[in-house]
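Appendix B. Chain record.
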Amino acid sequence: MFITFEGIDGCGKSTQLELVEKFLIDNGKEVLTLREPGGTVLAEEIREILLHSHHTISKESELFLFEAARADLVSKVIKPALEQRIIVLCDRFYDSTTTYQGYGRGFDIQTIKIINNLATNGLKPDLT
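Structure tokens predicted for this chain:
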């Protein structure tokens, strides 16, 4: 099962994720918690660029960096965990990109959905 937590900064996503994680572990489930961007060496390096860069990043570059981090996380961590029947909890996923890069940066929503689908190889959360 793949569950993502979405919402504005500071709304309690991480808190809710931790509560769900504790509940699942207390009930004998194997759980993997992740965040976006991040979760792999490459994705953490991309996170650093996106969140702490001293350079101006174009909106196009920003979109593709988020998607590159997501593609790496999905292929290296999320899909293998799901194949092992591990419950995956993720703080943010593609709904954040749709919101921030689509509505916030003015990208066409349909274009973002296509890029998200490529980055995730069609993987969708079971619950958001």
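Further analysis of this model is presented in Appendix C.
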